[in-house]
């Protein structure tokens, strides 16, 4: 039977085997991405929500109903949780056709309705021409869609997707992104998607949690986690490489500026009221916060946060140039990515001395 | 050609596989999916009949199930007759000796069922029994068939255990292998030759069949992995 739509609350802690420590809520109608490096416990977390693994302790609650509660010794089976689960390799039943796979998940409705309902779902995922094919005769993208149709046809309380795009080629992946984005607007249940790809979280998720070595590091809107990582560990997990030391030298509440001393440079950042003057801080700047000076036109001449740099190395990767530069008066190196055409236009090359400017609003001070 | 012995052997093989294979399916599934303390000891125990001489197994069964033992007496009161030198005793002996032949191929097949598939089945709301019959058995049937064929042919050719446990009673415990031995003892080489040829042809056919099945099984797994 379809259940009333509710939020999913999850608080899990375990120390043995795979270490896990996480607490989060996934609201109905929301896509929550669980992001983190491989082997960090993401899939284990998903399996625990599905009821396929038992956590050592904690609570998993859907709406008002406990699915797992170690205190009250409640542990519902996957069958009792009535959820939709798409495993990493889709888990299609190889002996059943695409249609048979979807029908197999429809035990909760009368027998006569199952086949029409399954066909309807195959149509919804654009697979209406292939109901009689066995999984072995379907492409990766088609298999993924059968698995998605099978999970959704159950009218699940929660949809769980384990690395849903990792087993398909790039072109298929792009198409599936669009389909999931379209489907998302039609779903009113909590959707939890495990991924190691931050881009997928940015594209598809309303909210994300970052997990590393079993520990939940941060929860928030993906863009916010990317631009406002709470700690250095989060910043590193998010792929941010420009993490530097600085001292707070002044707080200007009126103008909402915190002044930092970075080597011999003065840096203006957005205001962080909790900081005391003289405190040593770690701060981070994402790539989009670094502006390069046009060497010929000197456009940055009136910008804030101007720094002189010398380009140490450049590596062209596709349409992007990755460069490492020394900052004058600071022992740190700056990492940046610049579109190839722009790099050519402004004349960046190894050995060139130029200027960059940091956008104040994108400078972020990390928690100690 | 001792038709009575051949028929008795076929009957013994059929009864053995009918009892053993369903039991082996459940045990193999358990061993394939579950991790528990002492698992390797259990697996080693299952394999014992492969390395122990059949006469040794036969000796223990004879002593263990004979009317002198506590177990033998209990079973005798339960069945109404003693188990040694009797067809039902032969069935018990054949089942015990063939456990590794039944469990090994089925366990390997269950181990090859991807975890993703089992997880998805559970999340589709299927009960364990339904998962077994609807999803797993269609995937592991080559293993089940291999086990069935191996056990059937192994029982058909069993000699040591049968001789120790059943003796040589025509129509009751005299199987084709014993009959061949008897014929040779009586210098009836024509009859022994005929029966041996039947067993040889059967063995080669069975081996060809199981080899082709395991190849098909390998191909099936490869296509599932694709």
UniProtKB/TrEMBL annotation, chain A:
Which organism's genome codes for this protein? Shewanella nanhaiensis
Q: Taking every annotated instance into account, which residue ranges of this chain make up the domain ABC transporter?
A: 3-238
Q: Which domain of life is it from?
A: Bacteria
SUPFAM superfamilies assigned to the protein according to its UniProt record, in alphabetical order: MOP-like, P-loop containing nucleoside triphosphate hydrolases
Which InterPro entries would you find in this protein's record?
AAA+_ATPase, ABC_SmlMolc_Importer, ABC_transporter-like_ATP-bd, ABC_transporter-like_CS, ABC_transpr_FbpC, Mo/tungstate-bd_C_term_dom, P-loop_NTPase
Q: A GO molecular-function term, please?
A: ATP binding
Instruction: Provide the taxonomic classification.
Output: Bacteria, Pseudomonadati, Pseudomonadota, Gammaproteobacteria, Alteromonadales
Q: What PANTHER family does the entry give?
A: SPERMIDINE/PUTRESCINE IMPORT ATP-BINDING PROTEIN POTA (PTHR42781), SPERMIDINE_PUTRESCINE IMPORT ATP-BINDING PROTEIN POTA (PTHR42781:SF4)
Any idea what this protein is called?
ABC transporter ATP-binding protein
Can the keyword Transport be found in this entry's annotation? yes
Signal peptide start-end = none
Keywords, ordered alphabetically: ATP-binding, Cell membrane, Ion transport, Iron, Iron transport, Membrane, Nucleotide-binding, Transport
UniProt cross-references to Pfam families, sorted A to Z: ABC_tran
UniProtKB/TrEMBL annotation, chain B:
InterPro entries associated with the record:
MetI-like, MetI-like_sf, ModB_ABC
Q: What are the entry keywords? A: Cell inner membrane, Cell membrane, Membrane, Molybdenum, Transmembrane, Transmembrane helix, Transport
Sequence ranges assigned to domain ABC transmembrane type-1 in this UniProt record: 6-208
State the annotated membrane topology for this chain: Multi-pass membrane protein
Transmembrane regions listed in the UniProt entry: 12-32, 44-63, 83-103, 137-156, 189-209
Q: Does Membrane show up as a keyword for this record?
A: yes
* Compartments, record wording: Cell inner membrane; Cell membrane
Q: What does this protein do?
A: Part of the binding-protein-dependent transport system for molybdenum; probably responsible for the translocation of the substrate across the membrane.
Q: Which family does it belong to?
A: Belongs to the binding-protein-dependent transport system permease family. CysTW subfamily.
This one is known as: Molybdenum transport system permease
Name its species. Shewanella nanhaiensis
Q: Tell me the lineage of the source organism.
A: Bacteria, Pseudomonadati, Pseudomonadota, Gammaproteobacteria, Alteromonadales
């Amino acid at each position: 039977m379809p259940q009333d739509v509710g939020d999913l609350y999850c608080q899990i802690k375990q120390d043995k085997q795979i270490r896990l420590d996480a607490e989060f809520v996934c609201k109905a109608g929301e896509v929550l991405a669980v992001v983190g490096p491989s082997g960090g416990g993401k899939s284990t977390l998903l399996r625990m929500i599905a009821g396929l693994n038992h956590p050592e302790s904690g609570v998993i609650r859907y709406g008002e109903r406990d699915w797992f509660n170690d205190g009250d010794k409640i542990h519902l089976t996957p069958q009792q949780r009535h959820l939709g689960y798409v495993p990493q390799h889709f888990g299609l039943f190889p002996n059943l056709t695409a249609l048979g796979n979807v029908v197999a998940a429809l035990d909760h409705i009368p027998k006569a309705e199952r086949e029409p309902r399954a066909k309807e779902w195959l149509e919804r995922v654009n697979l209406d021409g292939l109901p009689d094919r066995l999984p072995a005769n379907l492409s990766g993208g088609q298999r993924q869609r059968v698995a998605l149709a099978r999970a959704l046809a159950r009218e699940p309380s929660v949809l769980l997707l384990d690395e849903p795009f990792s087993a398909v080629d790039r072109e298929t992946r792009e198409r599936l992104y669009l389909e999931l984005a379209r489907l998302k607007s039609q779903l009113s249940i909590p959707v939890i998607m495990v991924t190691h790809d931050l881009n997928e979280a940015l594209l598809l998720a309303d909210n994300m949690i970052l997990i590393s070595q079993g520990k939940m590091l941060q929860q928030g809107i993906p863009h916010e986690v990317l631009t406002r990582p709470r700690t250095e560990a989060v910043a590193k997990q998010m792929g941010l490489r420009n993490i530097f030391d600085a001292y707070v030298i002044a707080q200007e509440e009126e103008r909402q500026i915190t002044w930092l001393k970075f080597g011999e440079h003065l840096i203006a950042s957005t205001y962080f009221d909790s900081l005391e003057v003289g405190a040593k801080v770690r701060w981070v700047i994402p790539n989009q916060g670094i502006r390069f000076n046009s060497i010929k036109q000197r456009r940055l001449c009136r910008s804030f946060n101007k720094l002189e740099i010398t380009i140490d190395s450049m590596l062209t990767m596709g349409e992007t140039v990755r460069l490492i530069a020394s900052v004058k008066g600071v022992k740190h190196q700056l990492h940046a990515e610049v579109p190839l055409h722009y790099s050519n236009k402004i004349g960046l090359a190894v050995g060139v001395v130029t200027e960059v400017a940091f956008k104040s609003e994108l400078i972020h001070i990390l928690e100690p | 050609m001792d038709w009575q012995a051949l028929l008795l052997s076929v009957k013994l093989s059929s009864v053995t596989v009918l009892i053993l294979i369903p039991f082996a399916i459940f045990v193999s599934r358990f061993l394939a999916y579950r991790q528990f303390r002492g698992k390797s000891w259990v697996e080693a125990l299952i394999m014992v009949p492969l390395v122990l001489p059949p006469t040794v197994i036969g000796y223990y069964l004879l002593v263990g199930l004979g009317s002198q033992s506590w177990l033998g007496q209990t079973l005798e009161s339960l069945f109404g007759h003693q188990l040694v030198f009797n067809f039902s005793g032969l069935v018990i002996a054949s089942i015990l000796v063939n456990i590794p032949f039944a469990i090994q191929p089925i366990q390997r097949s269950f181990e090859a069922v991807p975890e993703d598939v089992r997880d998805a089945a559970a999340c589709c709301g299927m009960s364990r029994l339904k998962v077994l019959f609807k999803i797993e058995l269609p995937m592991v049937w080559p293993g089940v068939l291999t086990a069935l064929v191996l056990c059937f042919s192994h029982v058909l050719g069993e000699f040591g255990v049968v001789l120790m446990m059943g003796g040589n009673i025509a129509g009751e415990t005299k199987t084709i292998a014993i009959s061949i031995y008897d014929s040779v003892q009586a210098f009836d080489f024509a009859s022994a030759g005929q029966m041996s040829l039947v067993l040889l042809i059967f063995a080669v056919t069975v081996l060809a069949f199981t080899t082709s099945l395991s190849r098909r099984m390998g191909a099936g797994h490869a296509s599932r992995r694709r």
